[in-house]
């Protein structure tokens, strides 16, 4: 069944786009000034990074949203021309006698590094070089090295849950947008499947914290994760990367950059991972957790003239791995069986699972296209990005961790998403920076989520299936200003108008007649909800000395409502969860000293929530325990973060570390959701989910010059996260303290022509519980962290 947008939506959207186009394109600003670009040299640990191609190229990445007068825009950056204000680029400075690999000079429009260093908010950046050195291959993996960010897989398949400072959406079904906005090259991903398998050939990943949506994209309460890929440039080159690691895992990545003509540049890249699983069934010996993932991407830049360009992005992803399985530690005891009958028991080996004959696996594929138009003016820049994506998922998930059907899942859905963002940024005077834009999106998911419960319901083929169509429409008008009120003092004011319409038509069907008539609906919902919100941010930023600033901001965030699409036997568990609202207070300081050799960033924050969306464990009819989505009327999170980078302060040594503290509590008790009693009542001041009290990480890299113009780099890394709650009202929903030690040794010529590396992740072979919950038969189910992983990789640049 198709859900149509409410009457008048097309008129509203067309009017908004027409009005925005007039605002954005109407007339040059008086007193316009030429904004200068940023020239970044060297392979820094933070900020914009050298492209992952040949070490001799000049790259002009696409523009990122700017903040403040420090986020300047270079004329002609797309065509590789020099900034008029900067003149000739300065050469990279190196110590006498050091013959390091020649770094790339990256000429950036609206430099992301400069923006993140000057924006009045906390932003943590991982460069492409760091991502590769830390073996980060998915957005979920960056949480280990980002303070305040958590990410776990809630199912055996591909549904990661993100949370920033305790804000997210802990829903495992995959049909809801979280409180965190995920962007790939400026394109918003409404569902988790849209950022599956595309994090390769990456330039940087930035985590922007606090309410967002004032400078680009969609409104979010917790923050954004922005992934930027390497863009094509005007020189031929590329790389080939191959690796082999534990459990027969082969990894191949490559990129080829080709200047087709003086006006057309193309970059094609791919990633392929294939390996055996690290888990074994205790009875059949079959492996689980294997990988078979392919990603393809082609970027083509069309240089229309020296001021404007088009960037075409075409991408595809396919995943046919065998899903990882959780462990059920006491299912046998709960059901009166000997240990190992249907579960693995409380003292099972870390890699032991009991899947039996349950069919488990992934069959996912999808792709899309986006087109970005950029136009530079003497007084600013206009950017318009349009995208369309489609994804198909057909996954079988041993969600209960048992060899019988207590709560296994079949995720069968098709997702579509279309979005358009356009904005104009300009300096009207030397004291006033303005950014204005419009964002609109439409997404739809058509799904059939089946829960296999024949063992629990004592009926052959006792399945419950939620068949549904969900459709979302979102429009936003945003405005961001920075005004220089005194010599070193800036006033920041931002605002956003958001209109969201969310519709859901479907419900849970009793496939075999276990609870009611065969094929009848146990619960059904056919409704839509539209909301209008005004959000904003005000703040002050004071520059103590160049490179050192303090700031204070007050902002409010908004996230649209949500529907819970898992098969449930009670209609109340399927009900709509109203939008989430938040007020955020933050003070912070940033400093960049000794010519960027020392960078320190710290912040204190206080968040107040209203109607926080989260998972609860509720009691359903027929004594079935099930997770369900519901609201927390009032909640509060306070905390602080500190991160620092020391680059070459001691010759050849790079250090990076961060620390985060969170005190996240619900301030109102919850005994039930929609009339359903919770498995365990939630008292006032109990801890919120996905908010570890403490977390920290550290990375050290040391370079050693070798004879015959070779160089060796040694790296060690360590991450630690406190235990955290995963669902309210669930006594089993708490993780272990998770830690991992990693080592890496890399060698190659100083020219950077090739490198060879060996590494070990989780060197101490920790097996902590990363996600656990109470299953439908009241047993305990848990996922464990990936064990020790040893590997090597070879890379050749050309």
TrEMBL record:
Q: Where is this region: Disordered?
A: 52-105
Ranges of residues in domain TonB-dependent receptor plug = 118-223
Q: Where is the composition biased (Basic residues)?
A: 85-100
**Subcellular locations according to the entry:** Cell outer membrane
- Output a single Gene Ontology CC term carried by this record: cell outer membrane
Q: How does it sit in the membrane?
A: Multi-pass membrane protein
Domain TonB-dependent receptor-like beta-barrel stretches: 328-726
In this record, what's one Pfam family?
Answer: Plug
Recite the UniProt keywords alphabetically: Cell outer membrane, Ion transport, Iron, Iron transport, Membrane, TonB box, Transmembrane, Transmembrane beta strand, Transport
Where is the major localization of this protein?
Answer: membrane
PROSITE patterns under this entry?
Answer: TONB_DEPENDENT_REC_3
Its GO biological process annotations read:
iron ion transport
Low complexity composition-biased segments: 60-84
Q: What family does the entry list? A: Belongs to the TonB-dependent receptor family.
Query: What protein name is recorded for this chain?
Result: TonB-dependent receptor
């Amino acid at each position: 069944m198709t859900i149509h947008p409410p009457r008048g939506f097309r008129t509203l959207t067309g009017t908004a786009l027409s009005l925005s186009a007039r605002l954005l394109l109407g007339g040059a600003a008086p007193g316009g000034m030429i904004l200068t670009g940023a020239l970044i040299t060297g392979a820094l640990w933070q900020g914009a990074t050298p492209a992952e191609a040949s070490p001799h190229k000049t790259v002009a990445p696409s523009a990122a949203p700017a903040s403040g007068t420090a986020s300047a825009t270079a004329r002609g950056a797309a065509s590789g021309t020099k900034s008029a204000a900067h003149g000739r680029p300065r050469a990279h400075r190196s110590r006498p006698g050091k013959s390091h690999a020649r770094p790339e000079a990256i000429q950036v429009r609206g430099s992301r590094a400069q923006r993140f260093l000057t924006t009045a908010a906390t932003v943590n950046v991982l460069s492409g070089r760091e991502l590769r050195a830390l073996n980060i291959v998915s957005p979920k993996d960056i949480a280990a090295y980002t303070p305040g960010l958590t990410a776990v897989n809630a199912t055996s398949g591909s549904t990661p849950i993100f949370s920033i400072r305790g804000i997210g959406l802990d829903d495992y079904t995959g049909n809801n947008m979280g409180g965190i906005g995920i962007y790939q090259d400026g394109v918003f991903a409404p569902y988790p499947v849209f950022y599956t398998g595309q994090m390769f050939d990456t330039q940087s990943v930035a985590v922007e914290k606090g309410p967002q949506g004032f400078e680009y994209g969609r409104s979010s309460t917790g923050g954004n994760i922005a992934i930027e890929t390497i863009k094509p440039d005007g020189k031929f080159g590329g790389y080939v990367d191959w690796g082999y690691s534990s459990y027969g895992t082969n990894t191949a990545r490559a990129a080829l950059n080709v200047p087709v003509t003086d006006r057309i540049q193309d970059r094609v890249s791919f990633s392929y991972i294939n390996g055996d699983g690290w888990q074994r069934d205790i009875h059949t010996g079959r492996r689980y957790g294997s990988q078979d993932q392919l990603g393809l991407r082609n970027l083509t830049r069309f240089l229309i003239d020296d001021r404007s360009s088009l960037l075409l992005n075409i991408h595809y992803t396919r995943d046919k791995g065998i899903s990882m399985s959780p462990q059920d530690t006491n299912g046998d005891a709960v059901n009166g069986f000997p240990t190992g009958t249907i579960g693995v028991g409380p003292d099972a080996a870390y890699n032991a699972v009991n899947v039996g004959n349950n069919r488990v696996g992934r069959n996912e594929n999808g792709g899309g296209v986006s087109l970005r138009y950029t136009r530079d003016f003497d007084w600013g820049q206009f950017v318009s990005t349009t995208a369309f994506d489609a994804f198909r998922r057909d996954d079988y998930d041993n969600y209960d961790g048992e060899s019988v059907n207590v709560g296994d899942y079949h995720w069968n859905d098709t997702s579509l998403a279309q979005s358009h963002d356009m904005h104009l940024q300009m300096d009207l005077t030397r004291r006033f920076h303005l950014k204005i834009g419009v964002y609109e999106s439409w997404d739809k998911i058509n799904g059939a989520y089946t829960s296999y419960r024949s063992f629990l319901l004592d009926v052959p083929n006792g399945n419950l299936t939620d068949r549904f169509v969900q459709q979302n429409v979102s429009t936003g008008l945003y405005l961001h200003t920075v005004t220089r009120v005194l010599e070193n003092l800036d006033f920041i004011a931002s605002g956003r108008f958001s209109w969201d319409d969310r519709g859901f038509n479907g419900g849970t069907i009793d496939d075999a007649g276990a609870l009611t008539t065969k094929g009848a609906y146990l619960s059904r919902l056919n409704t839509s909800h539209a909301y209008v919100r005004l959000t904003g941010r005000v703040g002050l930023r004071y520059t103590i000395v160049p490179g050192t600033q303090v700031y204070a901001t007050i902002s409010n965030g908004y996230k649209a409502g949500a529907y819970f699409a898992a098969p449930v036997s009670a209609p109340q568990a399927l009900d709509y969860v109203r939008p989430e609202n938040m007020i955020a207070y933050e003070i912070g300081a940033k400093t960049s000293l000794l010519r960027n050799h020392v960078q320190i960033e710290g912040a204190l924050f206080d968040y107040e929530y209203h109607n926080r969306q989260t998972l609860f464990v509720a009691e359903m009819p027929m004594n079935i325990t099930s997770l369900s989505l519901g609201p927390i009327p009032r909640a509060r999170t306070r905390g602080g973060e500190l991160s620092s980078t020391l680059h070459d302060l001691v010759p050849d040594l790079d250090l990076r570390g961060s620390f985060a503290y969170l005190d996240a509590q619900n301030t109102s008790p919850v005994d039930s959701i929609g009339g359903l009693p919770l498995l365990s009542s939630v008292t006032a001041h109990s801890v919120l989910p996905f908010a570890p009290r403490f977390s920290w990480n550290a990375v050290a890299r040391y370079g050693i010059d070798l004879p015959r113009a070779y160089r060796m780099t040694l790296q060690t890394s360590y991450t630690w996260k406190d235990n955290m709650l995963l669902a309210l009202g669930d006594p089993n929903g708490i993780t272990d303290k998770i830690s991992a030690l990693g080592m890496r040794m890399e060698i190659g010529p100083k020219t950077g022509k090739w490198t060879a590396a060996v590494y070990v992740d989780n060197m101490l072979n920790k097996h902590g519980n990363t996600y656990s919950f109470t299953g439908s038969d009241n047993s305990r189910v848990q996922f464990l962290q990936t064990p020790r992983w040893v590997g090597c990789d070879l890379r050749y640049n050309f």
